[in-house]
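Human: I'm a chemist; would you kindly supply sequence and structure tokens for a protein?

Assistant:
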Amino acid sequence: MQSSSDAVIRPPTTWAVRGNQISLGRRTLVMGIVNVTPDSFSDGGRFLDPQAAVSHARALAADGADILDIGGESTRPGSEDVPAGEEARRVVPVVRALAKAVPLPLSVDTRKAAVATAAIEAGAHIVNDVSAFHDAGMARVVADTGAGLVLMHMLGEPKSMQVAPSYKDVVAEVASFLGERADRALAAGVARDAIVVDPGLGFGKRTGKGVEDNATLLKHVAALRRLGYPVLVGASRKSFIGNILGVPLAERLEGSLAAAAVAAWNGADIVRVHDVKATRRVVDLVDAVRNAP
């Protein structure tokens, strides 16, 4: 019998990504973040040079990453849009080099269909769309290429998403949004087993002043699983961790690891993180307890 304190069951399944199958369920996968940007909130500018980004990605692979997520546009609160040409200029050389250098699935973190197309042509397997089809052409790109797809919930745009966000029931509203966007993907021809959903922690969510939407969503990952899709959670180093613990960005490692552990226990199939080695160890232990008789 499963009690309320037991880990949420993750049935074995596969994620279809450009003709390949990524196994999900028994083991929590770790997606390593590669920011090829000058202004990302955590490591902006450190890996803007393509060679630095490739070296960093290879280090994440050695640390135990299962997937590498390459992004060329910061979507931190208040960030400005990056033109598609500039974004592609940043990410495509990195994707192309990594496709030859590491035997891992590659994800491109983009809201733009043109950038997704260029990255897929360079060797990417997955499109991580934090806007869930702000660009109406994205669904067709994914369907035509057979890429894997991550659909994330974001309230509004990065520039304005943290300006007075409001919900009556954050879990129900996020789940409804993701279900609707997944239906839109299916209608465009995206395969059901290509879709993963992400609640979008930190993207238009309330934090502090007695309301903590991010913690609520972490607690109720199982509600998102009822949509019928695997779940990805990205909490790493985000401001809500600093708000809860009262610590600056440089001191958010423990909180990030705790969030990854809670997400995995509550049913997340994939955690998206900066600190791969430490997270790999944490979720391996969580999985050992999950899978114990």
Notes: The chain has one domain: 13-290. The CA atoms of residues 32 and 275 lie 8 Å apart. Residues 13-290 form a domain with the TIM Barrel fold (CATH 3.20.20.20).
